[in-house]
Write a structure and sequence with these properties.
This protein has 2 helices and no strands. The protein has 59 residues and is mainly alpha-helical. It has one domain. The two termini are 17 Å apart. The mean pLDDT is 76.
Length: 59
């Protein structure tokens, strides 16, 4: 059981590190302003990931 928690934790870390790299790669302006589209997209990815986990654990 402990190894499965580690697998899920590593997947979680890799998933969000990939999201961070994608969001940083999409910015074209060198300014430090917050991009609302990137925030919305990040929230959507988080919600999809949570829905995937809930679906997996319910079944």
């Amino acid at each position: 059981m402990g190894s499965m928690i580690r697998v899920y934790a590593m997947f979680f870390i890799y998933f969000f590190s990939g999201l961070m790299q994608m969001s940083l790669a999409q910015t074209t302006a060198p300014s430090r302003m917050v991009d609302g589209k990137a925030i919305d997209q990040g929230i959507a990815y988080v919600l999809m990931f949570v829905a995937l986990l809930v679906t997996y654990f319910v079944h």
